[in-house]
Amino acid sequence: MPRLNLYQEEFYPSPIQNTWKEFKENHAALMSLYCVIFFIFVMIFGPLLAPFDPLQQHIEFLLVPPAWDNNGDISHLFGTDGLGRDMLSRIIYGCRMTFGISLVLVIISMLIGVSLGAMAGMSKGLRSSVVNHLLDSIMAIPTLLIAIIIIAIVGTGLVNSMWAISLALIPQFIHQTRDIVRQKMKKEYVLAAQLDGAGKVHIFFNSILPNMAEMLVVQVTLALSVAILDISALGFLNLGAQAPSPELGALLSEGLASAYVAPWNIAMPGAAIFLMMMSINLVGDGLRSALRYRLLR
Amino acid sequence: MLKIMLRHISLLTLTLLILSFFSFSLAYLFPGDPLVNLTGIRNSSEQGYALLAQQYAMQDSFISQYWQYVNHLFAGNWGLSFSSGLPLAEEISRSLAASVELSAYALIFSFVIGLPLGFLAGLRHHKFIDFSLLSASVIGYSIPVFWLALIAILIFSIQLGWFPLSGRISLLYDIPYQTGFILVDILLSDVPDKEFAFQDALQHLVLPSVSIAIVTCTIVLRITRRSVIEVMNSEYIQAAYARGLSPRQVFFAPWSKKRPYSYFAVIGDAIYYLADKRHDSGNYFFMAGYW
């Protein structure tokens, strides 16, 4: 039975609906959201979309330019590299690797960082001050440098670079979470929960976490673009993913060998990284301003 | 004021202490012999090894080893480089000057361009010019700088031939090493064609500094814009508008003691955020070494 709805103005949109309404107004952010969804689609269904195997070498098609060039061939849309591997399939697999790995890394470091940050934010006195000082000194090192130091200790390779980047991303999450938890601990609804006798864990999961979820999403988009940049930079410096594997940074550094005769081999993977980072940054920006202005209109 | 300074100085020393301890423990974490990792001296004779071990107090406890390590650090004895075998302090001072020079020009570029554009965007908040500058800044913010550098080389050095491919100066000029900053070195030296050498060095600097500056410029722009918007929304600005002052008067008139301070605060904010690693601009300067 439909609910009798006499007074339309009685309907109050939820905070998430408000955010979405504000986010929709920003066309660039909306477009880049579709772009991110497209990348996620490519990430999941990449093997079905790619025309060739990324490692298959077509001996008769060496260094073929992209299809829109006069010498191009339509069977290889983005051209081929020096070993005759199809660039389009390599980029599809590369997006899959770079984007998927960054997503996994960001989720792992978010889980660890948020739990540590919550502990740091809710504790007081000496313990919190020790944690803060340690954190400040770690935050003083650029993430890429931390990653390179860790790789120097454990050796090069994709898995090692994944460890390194997730370790390097954690401090940002700790910092952000700690600040928000500090802020929220002073709110009256937390005091009310405390007066009801709720424990720290209960307060965190039931009072603070729902209120910081949106800030976390923004932080995740920031960390995602950092992770993509770091993974591809490490691949580019030959410290991360190694040569035959189709990772976008490794593709770039492989294309460097034939950059003079085949500039598309560095232009295409770089453009893929650029598009990925731009769409994620735009979504993050749009989300942030939507959160800021959603209650003003 | 004094209290804040003291607090920050203690924080700085503590941070440096932790960092130095971390870098000392790296000698144990890296593969290989810790003493070799610390000094960088490979294949030394047995006597030499024993002498070194005594110098670095390898037999003693971890803490006295660390103390010796710090002493060596302060004495300027940083060990040898694994890759070239030269003393590390010299090696670093040589390449550091080149990196610092490049970063400094990139930073100057990005402030000269980014600050006025940031003010413009902030003052025209939510107008056409603000949106176009903001979207341009997102594009600049998202470009991976190592790729941008490659594309710039491909287009401007190889296709168009406007700028040289690599290096800091043409091999024709032999500039004696003095400060490590190439432009300063040229001015201090007494080579015959000073102006031409200077122009040549400038040409070598343009591409790398501009491609780094594009990225940092967008960061400066965004931060400046944000802070300007915050200042313009504050109550004393609203009060000034309410008194009937024109935007130009509000912006330039020094009638309020607070105004110049807040402009400085905006610039300070920008520098602070650039140095702050959360925004990861350090990575871009770090990349400068790979040019």
TrEMBL record, chain A:
<dbReference type="GO" id="GO:0055085">
    <property type="term" value="P:transmembrane transport"/>
</dbReference>
<protein>
    <submittedName>
        <fullName>Peptide transport system permease protein sapC</fullName>
    </submittedName>
</protein>
<dbReference type="GO" id="GO:0005886">
    <property type="term" value="C:plasma membrane"/>
</dbReference>
<feature type="transmembrane region" description="Helical">
    <location>
        <begin position="261"/>
        <end position="284"/>
    </location>
</feature>
<feature type="transmembrane region" description="Helical">
    <location>
        <begin position="216"/>
        <end position="241"/>
    </location>
</feature>
<dbReference type="InterPro" id="IPR050366">
    <property type="entry name" value="BP-dependent_transpt_permease"/>
</dbReference>
<feature type="transmembrane region" description="Helical">
    <location>
        <begin position="97"/>
        <end position="120"/>
    </location>
</feature>
<dbReference type="Pfam" id="PF00528">
    <property type="entry name" value="BPD_transp_1"/>
</dbReference>
<feature type="domain" description="ABC transmembrane type-1">
    <location>
        <begin position="95"/>
        <end position="284"/>
    </location>
</feature>
<dbReference type="Pfam" id="PF12911">
    <property type="entry name" value="OppC_N"/>
</dbReference>
<comment type="similarity">
    <text>Belongs to the binding-protein-dependent transport system permease family. OppBC subfamily.</text>
</comment>
<feature type="transmembrane region" description="Helical">
    <location>
        <begin position="28"/>
        <end position="50"/>
    </location>
</feature>
<keyword id="KW-1003">Cell membrane</keyword>
<keyword id="KW-1133">Transmembrane helix</keyword>
<feature type="transmembrane region" description="Helical">
    <location>
        <begin position="140"/>
        <end position="170"/>
    </location>
</feature>
<keyword id="KW-0472">Membrane</keyword>
<keyword id="KW-0997">Cell inner membrane</keyword>
<keyword id="KW-0812">Transmembrane</keyword>
<dbReference type="InterPro" id="IPR035906">
    <property type="entry name" value="MetI-like_sf"/>
</dbReference>
<dbReference type="InterPro" id="IPR000515">
    <property type="entry name" value="MetI-like"/>
</dbReference>
<keyword id="KW-0813">Transport</keyword>
<dbReference type="InterPro" id="IPR025966">
    <property type="entry name" value="OppC_N"/>
</dbReference>
